[in-house]
Amino acid sequence: MKTVLHILNTNTYSGAENVAITVIRAMQRLYSDYRLIYVSPDGPIRERLVAEGVEFEPVEKLSRREIKRAVGKYSPDLIHAHDFTASIVSAFSTRVPVISHIHNNCPWLKRLCVKSLAYGVSCFRYRKMLGVSPSVFDEFIFGKFFKKKCEVIGNPIDLAKIRTAAERAEIKSGYDIVFLGRLTEQKNPIRFVEIIGEAAKRIPISAVMIGDGELRADTEKKISELGLSDTIKLTGFVDNPHGILAASRLLVMTSEWEGYGLVAAEALALGKPVVATPVGGIPTILVGREGRLCTDGAEMADAIVSLLTSDEEYTSASRLALKRASEIDNLGEYAEKINQFYSGE
User: How far is the C-alpha of 296 from the C-alpha of 227, rounded, in Å?
Assistant: First the structure.
């Protein structure tokens, strides 16, 4: 039995956490010789882990002392660290081999600063470095020095799980447009509100913003300023947003940067066209007319209006979304790659 600790720095549920849980569940189902333990600060994530049947080791905070304690308790063969902080802390806490799995293509990766330097130094300690899109390593200022360790792996896509989640969701309210993500600088919710404002000048629109974050107050203020209180609904965090997504028409992503852009793949799995900025891994997900890649707000507003007013265009995009989703359904292949990395191949 090989023991692997999955280390994360967050106590809530979002993209990286979803990937870690999906990997753990897939490995548990397909391979019998692993014990996989999720290690993170305690918080709302506990409820999700219990529901998913994932073994959990809570820590007070992610620190060298707590990593050493977890290593002493479980004597792992390997650490699978998710994103930068977890990777850096793990690398300098133990001699246990570490895989650094990067889900987010942060802007500071491109320049010399304390964060990029710290991660660069820690890279010498990793057995393998996994990235969700080529841009993660291509834009990393020190990436060229570690090419032999780097592997672009994408994200695990489980169509059946996404569709089952949509069927089981308690909330199934439908809207024309969905924003799904944290209300943070990365996701640029203010730009989303402005785009909806432009589109709403031309056609009646209903939109929903699912998620929470430090820009919640700013987002509410912008909605009020533009007179969109009856057009855009803010739900806050929703444990299972797939019911809303399945009942709605379009997903719109206004991200400033992304690692992969998993929510785009989830929308395609439900037959929903995606209008998005061409950042991170999104151009590898949206490769045809199942979506629209737009470089500015005006172009996004045009795409939204066009899709919502042309039944022919929308129906074609929805059909192509399902086709594209079937092409990127990769859970078994993804788990096989993870098994190879865990085995040191």
Answer: 22
Alpha-carbon gap, residue 299 to 201, rounded angstroms: 15
Grouping H, G, I as helix, E, B as strand and the rest as coil, residue 115 is helix
Is-contact 29 107, C-beta < 8 A? no
First to last CA, the chain: 18
Q: Give the burial class of 74: count Cβ atoms within 10 A of its Cβ; 0-12 exposed, 13-18 middle, 19 or more buried.
A: middle
Tell me the per-residue pLDDT of 210-253, one tens digit each, with 9 for 90 and over: 999 999 999 999 999 999 999 999 999 998 999 999 999 999 99
Q: Does the reported pTM lie above 0.90?
A: no
Phi-psi category of 211—alpha, beta or left, where left has phi over 0 and alpha has psi -120 to 50?
left
Q: Which domains occur in the chain, in start order?
A: 2-156+330-342 (3.40.50.2000), 159-328 (3.40.50.2000)
Residue showing tokens 């490769």: 287
Helix, strand, coil shares, percent, the chain, to 5 = 50, 20, 35
Length of the chain: 345
Residue 130, SS3? strand
Q: Are 292 and 277 in contact, with CB atoms under 8 Å apart?
A: no
